[in-house]
User: Which sequence fits this backbone?
């Protein structure tokens, strides 16, 4: 059963409900008609190296919400044995998003959860550096940021706190 409000929902080109409001770099909705950040297309299948490169560029630009969407595509489209890795990376990006929005509790929780997930995946898969990702350094970064957010109780600058996924800034 469809209501009148359902008929007014924004739709994508496939007819699925999708909010068309512009968003800022942290994924927050802006008023219609406002210039926002271009949204990441959903459901894009990329090679793992492309995923890391694109996510790094978004993180470095202070757009962790959008980086999360890139990691989420890899999580949903990648091989089963890598899904926990990409999900953990998506959690790190969302944790940074929440920390930058000032959500201290949610940010710290997701950063720690993501840190544990990528570390655990690296140990179980016996791959501490898949696709050049520095999993131990990422986990340490996430835990440091979680502690900083909790100690300061304030929003952080997502661009300043952007992690270096490969440890070399790339």
Assistant:
């Amino acid at each position: 059963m469809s209501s009148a409000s359902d008929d007014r929902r924004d739709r994508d080109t496939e007819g699925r409900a999708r909010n068309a409001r512009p968003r800022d770099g942290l994924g927050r909705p802006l008023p219609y008609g406002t210039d926002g950040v271009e949204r990441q297309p959903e459901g894009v299948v990329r090679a793992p190296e492309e995923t890391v490169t694109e996510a790094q560029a978004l993180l470095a630009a202070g757009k962790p919400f959008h980086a999360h969407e890139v990691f989420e595509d890899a999580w949903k489209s990648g091989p089963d044995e890598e899904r926990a890795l990409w999900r953990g990376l998506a959690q790190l990006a969302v944790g940074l998003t929440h920390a930058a929005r000032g959500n201290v509790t949610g940010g710290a929780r997701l950063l720690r959860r993501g840190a544990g997930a990528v570390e655990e995946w690296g140990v179980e898969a016996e791959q501490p550096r898949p696709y050049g990702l520095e999993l131990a350094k990422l986990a340490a970064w996430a835990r440091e940021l979680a502690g900083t957010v909790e100690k300061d109780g304030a929003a952080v600058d997502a661009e300043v706190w952007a992690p270096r996924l490969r440890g070399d800034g790339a």
